Amino acid sequence: MQNLFEELTGAFRRNAGKLSPEAYARIVHKHCSLFEDSETIFILLQASGYPIVEQVDGYANKTFFTPYQRQRYCVVDIETNGSKPGTSQVIEIGAVMVEAGQVVDRLESFVECAYLPEHITKITGIEPEDLIGAPTRKAALAQLRHFMEDAVFVAHNANFDYSFLNASFDRFGLGTIGNPKLCTIDLAKRTFKSERYGLAYLNEFLNIDNYTHHRAYSDALSATKVMFKSFETVPEYVSTTDDLLRFSTASKKARNVRKGSAQTRG
Fold this sequence. Notes:
This protein is α/β, with parallel strands linked by helices. The protein is 45% helix and 17% strand. It has 2 domains: 1-65; 68-231, Ribonuclease H-like superfamily/Ribonuclease H (Nucleotidyltransferase, domain 5), CATH 3.30.420. It has helices at 2-14, 21-31, 38-47, 118-124, 137-148, 158-171, 184-189, 199-205, 216-231, 241-249, 252-265, and strands at 18-19, 52-55, 58-61, 72-80, 90-99, 102-110, 152-155, 181-183. The strands form 2 sheets. A 5-stranded mixed beta sheet has the order 6-5-4-7-8. Strand 7, helix 6 (158-171) and strand 8 form a beta-alpha-beta unit. It is globular and about 55 Å long.
């Protein structure tokens, strides 16, 4: 499904955020079996968190039409008992839902785990007793899947959280993450200067209060505040959510080209 998400997004970008039924069907049939029709795949895309909607004249990607300031963002952090999802698991989930610049919901949960290495306890402060009687991995992951809906997936060093959760969702039959991804490290580097961009350093640099490093909800809330700080200095040419996603990963040269084009049009 990941290849399908990427090709669809590329096609939406080439077509101003919209696809005709024929163009959508061609892409779907390229990636899916003959037993899966376009409508079934549309339902699966929405269930995975991919922000697609059906319109009278085709399909649209909501990130191309939503101002980034009004977008829904799910800021996520996870603690795990190891670094590789094939041999490790999530032990704590924290998530903050942001909409129109305001925190509107939160999720915080331990995850049942039979093995917690001592060094993980030293890093996180989580004790084996904390995980006894916690929701099972499938239940906790399903709760996060439901909580995220089709919000933009945000995390500090997002590649780790995204890939670990993607593998974990797949293991328990919860599908692939289709939500667009935004990394607050990438965004911070493009919006304000700091000697370092690790979350612990930025908490001190930005005077973020009530912070406990390496605890999931606390880290998710801190990443939310880093995102808000970045929003203060996002360039004027960044208008939609898709603009923001591209800006967050664009090279300096590409950003200068976009800025120059915007100034010329102005």
